[in-house]
Every structure is written in C-alpha cells, then in structure tokens.
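dumping this here so i dont lose it
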C-alpha cells in the first residue's frame, strides 16, 4: 500500500519542488486527455522513435503543437526522448505506457476526468462561496460536461460483469430477478449501471431514479426510452415510488445524499420480503490514515469539491452529517444500522475503485 509521505518535504525548497511537480501534473491531465482525443498516443503505439514531423503526419495535426506536446510528455516520463540535436529529436512510447494508456483504461479515465476537472474549474467561485456559507452546491448546479464526464468514468470503472457478479452473491435475488422481480437504482445519473443491471437480468423490471431531471432525460435517451426492460423516473432518494423491490441499488450515490439514513430507511421499506440493497461505494478505509495515499487524495478532493457540497445542498448546514466520499465500511455499517438494516456484509467480489456491500433488513 502507498502510504502518506512527508519525508521529501522537510525544507521549503523541497516543498517548492513538489509544488512545481503539482503544477505540471495538473496540466498533465489536460495534456494526456488531448493525446487521447487527438490520437497522439495511438499514433506513437508500436512505432518506435518518431520525429515530431512524423507524428504530425501520422495524426494530421499541426507540428508546433505536436512538438510541444511530445516534449511535455517526455518531461513527464511518459515518452522516451532520443537524440537531442535540435530538430533531430525523436520520441518513443514505452510498452508499459502504451498498454496503460490504450489497452488498460488509463487514457480514457484521464479523458473522463479532464471533463470533470474543466467543469470544476468553472465552478471555482461557487465552491468558495459554499465553503464560506455551508449552503452547498447541488449536482443540478453543475453543467453537462460534469454529468457526462461522470457517466464516462462510470462506464469505464464499472462493468455489467461486476454488477452481475455482485448481485449473484445476494442470496435469492438473482432468482427473483429471473422471475420478473423489480429493481430500483437510486441516484442513477445518466443510467449506465441501471442499463448494465437490466442487460444482466433481462427478465427484471429495472427503474433508475434520480432527483436531477436533466440526468434522467439523458438516461432515457441513452436507453432508447423504455426498451430493454429499463425505465427512468425523476425522484429523490428519500421518496422514490414503488414497493416490493427485489433489489434496490445505490451505485456511487449514497455518499452524495443529504440524508443517507433517510434514503436507506426508505429503501428498506420498499423491499419485497427476501429483497436486498446493494451499495456500491468508493473504496474507503475505515480510518483516515488508511486513505492517506494517492487514491485517497483523489477521492477526498472529489469529496470536497462535488459529493460533500451536493450533500450539504440537501441538508440543514447546522445539522448535516455528510458521509464523505470515502466513508469506509464501518461508517456505512453505522448508517445502514440506523436505517434498520440488521445485516451489512462486504461482498467477495472486488474491484479496485469500488467497495460492494449487501444490506438486509
Ligand atoms: C456520482 S453520481 C452517480 C451516478 C450513477 N449512479 C453512476 O454511477 O454513474 C451521483 C448521482 O446522485 C444523484 N443524486 C444526488 N442527490 C440525490 C438525491 N437526493 N436523490 C436522488 N438522486 C440524487 C445525482 O443527481 C447524481 O446523478
């Protein structure tokens, strides 16, 4: 496990070095995403050393832009720089970088995050106000680039196989779904997980609910309006309609809610006998110290800028108790217990960026 490190920051000069690294890394998200969108990584893959003119020719891009991009990526360590005589430089893509960027989802994840970060940057003034007033900043106050970026991230980070395996572990639920049981997916966003569940259990009646009408409209459009046994409705987590659900899911949404106990209580009341709740949450450790690593830094930052502001926008700032994005199993168990669930079980199925829990009344 990568743990917190302050050992390289014992002098102001070392801290300044770190700050310069950070500035380059922040811009690196944009640069790497540009490489994805413009086909630069693809053009370098398996090609061996190429000059800037050759990369420009392969991509149809403008050479001065390509040249500066290649140099920046070589400085980042993603490319190997060969030569050094001005004008004769060549650049090559190491195999490990090629695999991570183009075969594993590295490049696509950075691209999805670049959309979200661009949107966050536009909200800077609003975040500052929210920090000062505690009023929060709701999901609906963001912009389509953020919502679509989240959807892209979800489609990379989750799979139908993962959700099917998780549901497969919920005793009695797969059988109920095969017999036409109902599923409610709460905080469905653009609906990718909802559609994955519907595809994995074609006999089930699956409905995605979200308080945000524009996300629901996008989910409906992506699903082709009611085809494939999946529907989408506008409803908040604490009052979504229906009863007798074989399964209620919260995919990356519980920690966004202003009233997670109220939402889980409502979900419990909506379950059929033998039904279960599936929680999919980011992979937080129980103690803060467990999360003081690069992944924890990313999730705590998203928590600060997105999830906690949304939760605060739905609660009285004086009494709100937002979960935070990395709540961890212990805290999630407390919340579920407060909502009347007696069984909280971590599922055997694992995914690097997800924690999966079964809740039973
Ligand atoms: C991080 S996104 C996850 C979306 C989707 N489940 C996915 O995995 O792509 C959180 C979602 O929760 C929704 N949400 C926030 N507060 C809500 C509430 N009180 N009731 C219902 N949905 C809510 C947001 O609109 C957003 O679509």
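and the seq i came up w/
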């Amino acid at each position: 496990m990568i743990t917190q490190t302050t050992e390289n920051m014992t002098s102001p000069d070392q801290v300044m070095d770190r700050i310069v690294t950070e500035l380059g890394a922040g811009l690196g998200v944009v640069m790497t995403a540009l490489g994805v969108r413009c086909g630069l990584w693809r053009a370098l893959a398996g090609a061996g050393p190429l000059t800037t003119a050759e990369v420009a020719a392969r991509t149809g891009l403008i050479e001065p832009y390509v040249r500066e991009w290649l140099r920046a990526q070589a400085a980042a360590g993603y490319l190997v720089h060969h030569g050094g005589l001005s004008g004769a430089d060549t650049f090559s893509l190491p195999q490990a970088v090629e695999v991570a960027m183009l075969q594993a989802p590295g490049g696509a994840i950075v691209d999805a995050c670049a959309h979200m970060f661009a949107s966050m940057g536009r909200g800077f003034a609003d975040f500052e106000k929210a920090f000062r007033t505690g009023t929060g900043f709701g999901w609906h106050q963001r912009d389509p680039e953020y919502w679509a970026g989240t959807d892209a991230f979800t489609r990379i980070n989750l799979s139908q196989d993962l959700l099917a395996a998780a549901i497969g572990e919920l005793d009695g639920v797969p059988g109920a779904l095969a017999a036409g049981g109902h599923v409610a997916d709460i905080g469905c966003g653009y609906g990718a997980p909802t559609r994955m569940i519907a595809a994995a259990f074609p006999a089930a009646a699956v409905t995605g609910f979200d308080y945000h009408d524009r996300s629901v409209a996008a989910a409906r459009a992506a699903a082709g309006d009611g085809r494939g046994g999946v529907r989408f409705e506008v409803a908040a987590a604490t009052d979504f309609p229906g009863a007798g659900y074989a399964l209620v899911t919260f995919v990356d949404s519980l920690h966004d809610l202003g009233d997670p106990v109220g939402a889980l209580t409502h979900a419990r009341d909506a379950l059929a006998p033998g039904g279960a709740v599936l929680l999919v949450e980011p992979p937080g450790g129980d103690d803060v110290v467990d999360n003081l690593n690069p992944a924890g830094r990313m999730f705590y930052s998203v928590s600060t800028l997105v999830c906690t502001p949304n939760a605060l926008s739905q609660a009285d700032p004086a009494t709100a108790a937002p979960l935070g994005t990395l709540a961890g199993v212990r805290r999630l168990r407390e919340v579920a217990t407060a909502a009347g669930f007696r069984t909280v079980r971590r599922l055997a199925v694992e995914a690097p960026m997800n924690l999966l829990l079964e809740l039973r009344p």
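The chain has two domains: 12-104, 124-360.
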